[in-house]
Amino acid sequence: MSISKQERQEKELTRLEMLTRFDEQYYNKGYSLICGIDEAGRGPLAGPVAAGAVILPRGCKILYVNDSKKLSEKRREELSERIKEEAIAFSVAMVDNRRIDEINILQATYEAMRKAVESLKVKPDFLLVDGMAFPGSPVSMEPVVKGDALSFSVAAASILAKVARDRLMRDYDEAYPEYGYAKHKGYGTAAHMEAIRKYGPSPIHRKSFITRI
């Protein structure tokens, strides 16, 4: 049996309340500028890894903010603009494929996260980081496993990172149309791997990721 529009909205409000309640526990500890951080693009064979960082006002609630992977592209684009409008500060930093090959994807992800925090126009006093703490930050942090599904600010950061990276990959598609970047965003789909075998790697491929293709 299908549920009504009102029931769907009530369900969404309940989910959103749980997300914001997670962040609220840290405000209650005395922090006032809590920054959510998440990455996008650790797994693809091509393109950069991106990290989003966002400080939202205490009590901010934006319907449908969620783990970016659970949202449609259209919804992510809409929410990205809304998050930017509501944010006290936000940034997205990227580390390109050459740097990934140089220092490995984990260290490149850490680097993107550090850069994202450093680029904020307002300095946070606490960080909520999806999955893992990263070294080299002067700000206290809490790693949150599956944070993009638990924390409002981390979910918002995941959307900013994903949208920014996807836009860049669509730009790359215009430069290298034979690889289909607009469709798969650099991930290892069958069509993408076939294109690599046919045309060889493009300038944005991560050579350390495609050694066995």
How would you describe this structure to a colleague?
By secondary structure, the chain is α/β, with parallel strands linked by helices. The protein has one domain (5-209): Nucleotidyltransferase, domain 5 (2-Layer Sandwich), CATH 3.30.420. It has helices spanning 5-27, 73-86, 97-103, 105-118, 147-150, 152-175, 181-184, 190-199, and strands spanning 34-40, 49-55, 89-95, 126-130, 141-144. Strands 3-2-1-4-5 form a five-stranded mixed sheet. Strand 1 (34-40) and strand 2 form a beta hairpin. Helix 2 (73-86) packs across helix 6 (152-175) and helix 3 packs across helix 4 (105-118).
SSE layout and pairing:
Blueprint: H1 5-27, E1 34-40, E2 49-55, H2 73-86, E3 89-95, H3 97-103, H4 105-118, E4 126-130, E5 141-144, H5 147-150, H6 152-175, H7 181-184, H8 190-199
Parallel strand pairs: 1-4, 4-5
Antiparallel strand pairs: 1-2, 2-3
